């Protein structure tokens, strides 16, 4: 039995052009260039001076897009990707480890959104749209002592 990993077929290129990465990932070329400028992905230059990307970049781009879709800041994504080898695609274990670090932030955002949803038709959280209602919920503008903005909608962190 041969334990050597199977090599890709000869017509299966080891690297991809920026256009091929864009097509396969569904991300515009300009976004790929932006990701590269931020150090999120890397390419090398072919003798023709065109960018070439390793196939692992497809999974890195998918990782970035999923993290962005759930609201993770690009700086936090860059910090997470910096813990991974630059020439390897993030694995399922990598995603589990890194996403676990984002769980508390996502839970806090979800709580904030739920609170906003549940009070959205009532008011903007004492900032204030309804003076007649706020006399009941915020008599004498007592929430102003907590700071500016929509104070009733602010979710306080455990460490606050």
Quick recap:
By secondary structure, the protein is mainly α.
For the secondary structure, the number of strands is 3
Sketch the major β-sheet.
3 strands, antiparallel
SSE string = EHHEEHHHH
Report the radius of gyration as a whole number of Å: 24 Å
Walk me through what this model shows:
The protein is mostly helical. Helices cover 46% and strands 6% of the residues. The protein is built from six helices and three strands, in the order βααββαααα. The longest helix has 28 residues. The chain is elongated.
Q: What's the layout of helices and strands?
A:
Elements lengths: L14 E3 H8 L3 H9 L6 E2 L5 E4 L2 H13 L4 H8 L10 H28 L11 H7 L23
Features:
single chain, mainly alpha, disordered N terminus, 3 strands, elongated, 160 residues
């Amino acid at each position: 039995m041969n334990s050597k990993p199977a090599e890709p077929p000869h017509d299966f290129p080891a690297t991809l052009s920026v256009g091929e990465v864009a097509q396969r990932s569904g991300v515009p070329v300009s976004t790929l260039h932006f990701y590269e400028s931020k150090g999120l992905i890397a390419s090398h230059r072919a003798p023709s001076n065109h960018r070439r990307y390793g196939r692992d970049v497809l999974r890195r781009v998918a990782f970035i897009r999923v993290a962005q879709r759930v609201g993770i800041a690009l700086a936090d994504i860059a910090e997470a990707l910096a813990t991974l080898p630059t020439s390897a695609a993030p694995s399922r274990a990598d995603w589990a480890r890194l996403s676990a670090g984002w769980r508390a932030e996502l839970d806090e955002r979800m709580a904030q959104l739920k609170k906003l949803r549940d009070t959205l038709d009532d008011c903007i959280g004492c900032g204030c749209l309804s003076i007649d209602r706020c006399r009941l919920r915020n008599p004498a503008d007592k929430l102003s002592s907590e700071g500016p903005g929509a104070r009733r909608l602010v979710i306080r962190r455990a460490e606050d």
